[in-house]
Amino acid sequence: MGTDPELGNVQISASGQLIRKMNNMQEAGKNKDELDKVGGVEALAKILKVDMQNGLTSEQVVASRKEHGDNEMPEPPMTWFIELFIASFNDPVLMVLIAASIVSLILGLFGPHAESEPYGWIEGAAIMVAVLIVAVVTAGNDYAKELQFRALSKFAQTMESCTVIRDGGTRKVLNPKEMVVGDVLCIKGGDQCFADACLFECDDHSGVSMDEAALTGESELVKKHTPGCTELGNKAADPFLLSSTICATHGNAEDAKAVVIGVGSFSQWGRIAAGLEQEAANTPLQDKLEDMVVLISYVGTASAVLTFLVTMTYIATSDPSSTAWLMGTIDAFILSITIIVVAIPEGLPLAVTISLAYSMKKMALDNNLVKALAACETMGNATNICSDKTGTLTEGRMSLVCGWFADTFVREDQFDSFFFQFKEGTTPKGNEAWKNKPGNPPWLAPMLQNIGINSSGEVVYGFTYFAPPKDKEPVPLPWLKDEKLTSTPIPAEWGEERLKEARTIQVWKDRPDHFNMTELALLSFAHKLDFNTITAKKESDVLVLIPFDSKVKRSSAIIGLGGGMVRVLVKGAPEVLKPFCTHYTDGAGGSKPLSDATWETLSGAQDEMANGQKRVICLAHKDVGVATLPRSPKDMSDEELDAVCTAGLCIDAYVGIIDPLRRDVPNSVAIAQKAGVKVRMVTGDNLKTATAIADKAGIFKTGDIAMEGPEFRKLTPAQLDEMLPRLTVLARSAPEDKFLLVTRLNGKNLPKDKASWEEGHPGHSYEAERDLLLPGYKEEWDLKHPGGGDVVGVTGDGTNDAPALKAADVGLAMNSGTSVAKEASDIVVLDDNFSSIVTAIKWGRCVYDNIRKFLQFQLTVNVVALLLVFVGALIGLEDPPLNAVQMLWVNLIMDTMGALALGTEQPTEELLGRPPYRRDAMLVSIPMWRNILCQSFFQLVVLLLLVTLGAGWFGIEQGNTCAEFDSEPLDAKKSHWDWDVKGKYVGGGGGLVGCETFTSGVLADGSSAPSKLDCSSDLSSSCYRDGYAKFDEDKHHESFEAICLKCEEEDFTHYTIIFNAFVWCQIFNEFNARSIGDDMNVFRGLHKNPIFAAVIVITVGLQIFIVEVGGLFTKTSPLNVTQWLVSAAIGLVALPVGLLMRLIPATEDPASFASPPE
Fold first, then answer.
1. How far apart are CA 279 and CA 580, in angstroms?
2. Which one, 71, 343, 720, 971, has the greatest CB density within 10 A?
3. Distances in Å between the alpha carbon of 123 and those of 107, 118, 280?
4. Taking the complete model, does pTM exceed 0.85, yes or no?
5. 1006: Cα separation from own chain's centroid
């Protein structure tokens, strides 16, 4: 055993050390040398004890996992809560507030008034505690956000899959984390490689092209070949497939095979991932909100500065002492900084995060796995959806239902009876056995050979489960269904995990499954005729297999027939294969030349099938002598193979495959169109089939344009712009057509200069042709689209769809698609259903509106709080109506609590009744401004009335006063002859009244004090309170009360009522904020949002606690029942005010919307 210092000195076995030596990062040459030292990949397989044809057994899988580890990728380092807590103090505003609170705390403990105000330190301490609470909440929110991000990443990983060979050659589809060292990995174009592996079988001529950009950053594809490849001459082969890379192409073989040599932390990606830090980028809405945060912060800062200046002016005019100057300045400074804290709406980005994270989880339940946060909000304002047909608009269960066979057109109603005559009762054992069955016509053999051999993948009819550690196996043929196993329950001893997956040992799917719908239709048709497609492929001499290529729209295979003959099998689009066909197969199985009359018959059959919404596939073959070929098919170049497969073909059949339109698609399309979203269908079907399906779906309407890809590509940018409003169907499209369409719609990825244009159009003149070739160029596009382009969502499932998915504002990959498509997408549509895309639009609009609800709520709080404190300073209140701690609590209410309450509102169908907003639309609409201003006016008027008249209404002392003084004067031993008999402060000992007047009733000149100043006969608290507490009539900052009297109990009742009424106004206005328009019922759908109700309950509970228990920390006094009820009643008035304000006419600016509904 050895250790690996890179991974914390983990113990590694001898074989583990060996494979580590040949898996050095970025050193392919050195790795190849190490592989050669052990004797090549075959010798490596022996060391790992793996049979490269049959794969590992279940027991070997368990042993390998124990020895080499599992394929769980290490998570990036977690930012712990304490780190986030410390980081939250980096906010400069909080730093200033902390500094001010420390100064206040020190002065309260050791300042000149420390003896007269023994609790003076409490305000500084309370502000410090409030800041700590803000820091804890901020850190908690950031920590929760990171946990949510990791949870979503893990959920996305559960949707990934790979194919390995195990247990005697069985292909198994696994989650990548189940892979182990020694597994035989099967990989083909579009697949992601989830572990490091060594290639041992592939198309030696073409090799395997891997995209290693995710690992190395290099954009060029890297060619991989088997170690013993002879096609490379003197160039050394690179057989190493690296984790996290993507297979772009795998040549002309069915797939490529490799032995896994590195998993999890020991893989190359695992070693990189262990040191990565994840940081989610801002979404567009977050960026827009941060701009608004800056603007609001400026307003708040200006308000704070004005408040500070007004307060300081008041202090200056009071002729205070130096101590009063210092204390007054600190208090004013703390208040001003607190105003800034309250004004800065840091809750806006938090609200976005909460709403997006909540929506992402909910969208996953609605079959939308969101990979990028921005996709949630962007989908809400999508103006165009460019949708695939198969599996998205249709059910994705294609069936072969009609066709032209051996000069006979068999329509749908005759199809079953026509083919039933060829079905025998006995199950065939292989290709040759089936072919020799009596009753089978000779023309059927090459057609079924084409279907079975010229194909990829297998149909999955169900699964058979086994006792752990052996895994489940797919059932690839319908006659392998075992009625006994389908009724036998899973034994309890197989474990809970197995019982969660299935109830019986064999489970039959509701319908057969395959990653390609066309292949599914053809293969299941062959199975209905008892043709064993699996043994047909195994027992045939397959020389070349060329998978389907969307660019040429065909796939091909060449098999050996013996006797010096080979058979070329080709299937693809009829219009593509037509130029290559010269003969057709007749009823006797012979080959006849194609006459004009036959072509006319074939064209008529094709049109009839296409008009009936069928996809038409041509199946053709030809038999060729090996001697007539330039060389063996295995040794031919791509060009030579292409020449062989595109000449002299014999048509065996035109088959019609139908994929029924999903039942809910017409309604979903209508909903999207009503929501102002243009739905376009982009498909590989011919124009007639595509138009028929689009018409039935409601996409193609009278006056709309439908065209095919070749015609589309010839358009100039100006011509396409003119057609775009009516172009709804793009048929026979290549993947680049979808990319061109998307780019022209949204303006992304357009060439920005001459160099980039010429790079995309090699051989063309920028000066002469820039206005003639698609997609155009940025300068020209910007001039035609001053308001920005469309917001485009694009669906895709193939590797070649990746550029269009990336170019779109939101890329929507089908769950049945390739790893490349999913990697390029922003959302994975788990059920491949168009209605799920409409649901994504609804959730996107919900996120957008939730943020605006929160913004409406927060701006109201901001306006009222800032104006209330400013007006309080302006009218000369000794204490602000809301103190620093109270304002920090209000800040907590409107930030975290408000974000939770309003950021988790559920979507409603009404959201799809309006058009999408433009990219540059203002977040705050006219109706929102109406609501903000009306509520702010109501609250401000009520609160200012409470400030000025409230004490009289409730029969309490005005402002914050002392409820109980000490029975002994605080400073009776010192004279402090600093006041005249009217209470005016003169200072310097030049007055007649001093502290001694308390007990003696004598003035400085020896004369008797007025009776109202004489407590010599009654040294009681009531005398001080009633007489001397009101002595300083001018309310100067060096007051008699502060120097001479010691307060035993503070009375904050007046300002507590104001504070309480203010908070209750916000609580009830939170209900008003649920409607940003004219909806009178602000309680609609409240039962669907338990989080909102919980936030309200928690807020009320905390408010009661703060008022009743806060005391000197929050400067609140307990209120009686009447005061509580009146405070709550004042807040409740916000609801009828909300009803009345919505009667004021206010409509959104039509220019805010991107497009009217159809």
1. 54
2. 71
3. 11, 12, 38
4. no
5. 83
